[in-house]
Write a structure and sequence with these properties.
The complex is a heterodimer of chains A (144) and B (382). With 144 residues, chain A is mainly beta. Chain A has one helix and eight strands, in the order αββββββββ. In chain A, a hairpin with a 4-residue loop joins strand 5 and strand 6. Chain A is globular, with a radius of gyration of 16 Å. Chain B is α/β, with parallel strands linked by helices. In chain B, the strands form two sheets. Chain B has a nine-stranded mixed sheet, sandwiched between helices. Chain B has a two-stranded antiparallel sheet with strand order 5-6. Chain B is globular, with a radius of gyration of 19 Å. The chains are: A mainly beta (144), B alpha/beta (382). At the A-B interface, strand 4, strand 5 and strand 6 of A face helix 4, helix 5 and strand 5 of B.
Chain lengths: 144, 382
């Protein structure tokens, strides 16, 4: 049985706190530059494209496409069998690492560029982890 | 750097490679260093510059009894040694030191006296927050992530990925020191145990123990040594991102392009001038990125280029002629072994020697597309 306690737990920093606070309430929070309009990730209090500090936090759509992935075959205690380690491209532009969940972990089921949506799973009392699943899937157990 | 102002005058690997539980990691450094000193006919007191990665240069200098006036601890992963060569050349030209020793030693398999690996950092680092929770299990399931995107965007096939391992095994078959020498087929590679789809075990590097060392000095002194001098004619280096998920484009490495462009510009050569190439192959897709990002192949052409045997024995562009990280050896920071093979080819003493080769390009990756270093060597005196 998968043991979620074996998942490395993120430690928020002052610059990333907004992201994890958002995840806690089911929001995927990104940042946007007020000067050059760059949308970026991971979080930092200035724009990586132009270094402007005129940046804002906003809630992303949660929609994404599957950019690339592997299916790890080596046993990991947090997973029951092979699992995907993926990079997704958000509708707003930035890419994130994730696992693709609520879908068969096979090359046939995991097609590049397929439509995905964010879903959050509690990891600890403080941390919800964002994952991605095929768009329109109703995960067992209902909404968050 | 200025081309051909600095030369490699000593080069050696550890006496043995493979599984060496009788040697600690620091002794692997020392074994390689002493072999390189013997190769150059030098004493340890002749060394006044030290560079290493994996171990601290302090540890290596003290263990060997070196009193350096120049120290380089650049550690950007497996291509650190390419950067050391570049930095050493600059230091020698600037007069900071005269004779530099660069060492590598890694008890990658036996784990004897190994310095703790500085990985992604704790849960508060950006990798720790935004990559580690997705449970990649090191390079096999992380470094491999970009390839499906590369495949789709370029039309490259899994057969072509497998052909990289097949061709390099042919080179390894010519090398008595290679870990694996028996021929393999594309079918065998594709049907080998799946490690991280789409990569099978034969498409992943070995894990072995070993080391290597280089000695560099000014080209003016190069003829005073017993071996044929190997001149550094161009170098490059760059870094992109410590998080593979944040590569600008997973079908091409920015660090590869920047590093190689600089090295070729310094050397003042064209791709047609190159007789021999080493591309650090931690996994079978690395030669595709290397060949394309350095400009040897157009975008998406590297798969067919290798499949059609252009890099195989007898081909137009001999690549990874020691067998590479897939078949020769891979201790963890393989860049040193790529450099050693380029030196052997330029000296004319490689087990699979390329006839009349006079220019070798040696290209390394550090981390997982995080860093890159390129060293171009020649045996033609300035």
């Amino acid at each position: 049985m998968a043991d979620k306690s074996k998942i490395p737990v993120p430690t928020p920093t002052p610059e990333t706190a907004h992201f994890w606070e958002g995840a806690k309430v089911g929001e995927l929070r990104m940042q946007r530059c007020g000067d050059c309009a760059e949308v970026y990730f991971p979080p930092r209090p200035f724009c990586p494209a132009c270094t402007s500090k005129n940046v804002e936090v906003f809630v992303a759509s949660g929609r994404a496409q599957l950019y690339s992935y592997v299916i790890n075959q080596r046993p990991h205690p947090a997973f029951d069998g092979p699992y995907s380690i993926a990079v997704v491209e958000l509708e707003e532009g930035p890419r994130m690492m994730t696992n693709i969940v609520n879908v068969e972990q096979t090359p046939e089921a995991l097609q590049l560029d397929m439509a995905l949506e964010v879903t959050f799973e509690p990891l600890t009392d403080e941390i919800n982890l964002p994952y991605f699943q095929p768009a329109g899937v109703q995960p067992a157990g209902g909404a968050e | 750097m200025k081309p051909s102002t600095v030369a490699i005058v000593g080069a050696a690997e550890t006496t043995d490679l493979g599984r060496l539980p009788e040697l600690s990691q620091i002794q692997l450094h020392a074994d390689a260093a002493l072999n390189a000193l013997a190769d150059a006919g030098l004493r340890i007191s002749d060394i006044d510059g030290i560079a290493t990665a994996g171990e601290s240069p302090t540890s290596v200098a003290h263990y060997l009894g070196i009193v350096p006036t120049w120290v380089d601890a650049t550690q950007v992963g497996g291509c650190s040694f390419m950067l050391h060569v570049r930095h050493a050349a600059a230091a020698i030209n600037e007069g900071l030191c005269e004779t530099v020793l660069i060492t590598h030693g890694e008890s990658g398999r036996s784990n004897i006296g190994r310095v703790a690996f500085r990985g992604a950092g704790g849960g508060g680092s950006l990798q720790g927050q935004f990559e580690s929770p997705y449970c990649s299990m090191g390079p096999t399931s992380t470094f491999t992530i970009p390839f499906l995107r590369y495949m789709k965007d370029t039309g490259t096939t899994l057969e072509q990925l497998a052909s990289v391992a097949v061709v390099q095994r042919e080179w390894a078959g010519l090398n008595p020191r290679a870990s694996y020498r028996d021929p393999i087929t594309v079918d065998e590679v594709m049907n080998d145990r799946m490690i991280a789809y789409p990569f099978t075990k034969l498409e992943c590097c070995l894990v072995t123990d070993g080391g290597g060392a280089l000695i560099l000095t000014s080209a003016e002194r190069a003829n005073d040594f017993p071996t044929r001098p190997v001149y550094i004619i161009g170098t490059g280096e760059s870094v992109e991102t410590p998080m593979i998920s944040q590569m600008r484009d997973m079908t091409t490495s920015q660090a590869f392009r920047v590093s190689a462009r600089k090295a070729f510009a310094e050397a003042g050569i064209n791709h047609a001038d190159v007789d021999h190439v080493m591309i650090y192959d931690a996994f079978a897709h690395l030669p595709f990125y290397g060949l394309e990002d350095m400009g040897f192949c157009g975008r998406g052409e590297a798969g067919s280029f290798i499949e059609e045997r252009n890099t195989a024995p007898g081909g137009s562009l001999p690549l990874n002629t020691n067998g590479g990280g897939l078949s020769y050896m891979h201790s963890g920071m393989y860049g040193m072994y790529a450099l050693q093979e380029s030196v052997r080819q330029m000296r004319g003493i490689a087990p699979a020697q390329i006839k009349d080769a006079s220019i070798s390009v040696c290209h390394g990756v550090g981390g997982m597309f995080a860093a890159s270093g390129t060293v171009i060597m020649s045996n033609t005196p300035p």
